[in-house]
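does this look right to u?? beta-D-glucopyranose version
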Amino acid sequence: MTRQLMSRLLACVGLLCVASSALADGVKIGLSLPTQREERWVKDRVTMLAEAKKLGVDLRVQVTDNDAAKQVSQCENLISQGVKVLILAPHDASSAAVIIDKATKAGIKVISYDRLVTGSMADYYYLSFDNVKVGELQGEWLTKQVPKGSYIALAGSPTDNNAKLFRAGAMKYIQPLADKGDIKIVMEQWVKDWQPSEAQKLCEQALTANKNKVDAVLAPNDGTAGGCIQALAAQGLAGKVPITGQDAELSAAIRIVQGTQGMTIFKDTRELGKKAIEMALDLANGKKIETGSQVVNNGKKDVPSVLLTPFIVTKDNLDKMLIDSGYLKKEQVYRK
Ligand code: BGC
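got this back:
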């Protein structure tokens, strides 16, 4: 049996064959990821590789390790390998615009994956979650826990457009209370490259400067939350100061169960990864992607977008959201 036939058969699980699979035929698709240092990006990669294998797609993966220049050269390399579509999760939103230009000139379609590439006039698609909603869920939860008090408000990497969207969403809830004088923001900072160690340092500084009088921490994701929780723990404050997160990482789920982190956001990267491969195959086969009227502005133009729904996870719904859905394993979350 040929590899192609085999992959088609594998794609035909259940009653229906996946429509685009019949046309995959080893089509080359490029994937450029910013990092593998965080669990969520490992999951994106694993899902996409599995989906590509199932559909007979030749997926070529590059990881930039948070280096914008390296991402450009890795993508140039993918372009020269003859990929038909490039799935691009930019490390640096604006410097990745040149990648879209180069790909488009070479007749390659681009999907901006999870993070939006900004400032490009070329035609491309955006596939992500509703990232403003992510921030809203964080801000709403945090202001409910602490409607009055001193806040540390951290945002993600300034080079990541998502960080701006998360922050804007959270500030919809925090800013009005700050304007009223109920909330005092004692530190407001971006965290370079989303580094947990950087977040820890910032929280340590804020705790010292305010003699530990901090009542709430807006941490943009689970990695940075982990760093802040170490800073809080060193002052005997872990579990006493409500703190947010995002990504439903295993370590965060454990902290939620143990009570040192209050919430996280579940963005099902399995769905996102699967959708990316499906969209890429459709584009490779010359199909238009149905996005309805959904768009996200990239600073120069509206980019047609597909946005999946994020969900809040607390101790109360963690089992249902993360374990019953198979995203995390019960024995790992509730390890002794
Ligand atoms: C992603 C988050 C992730 C962060 C750091 C963001 O663009 O949407 O899920 O935690 O990058 O990698």
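Residues 161-179 form the longest helix (19 residues). idk if thats expected tbh
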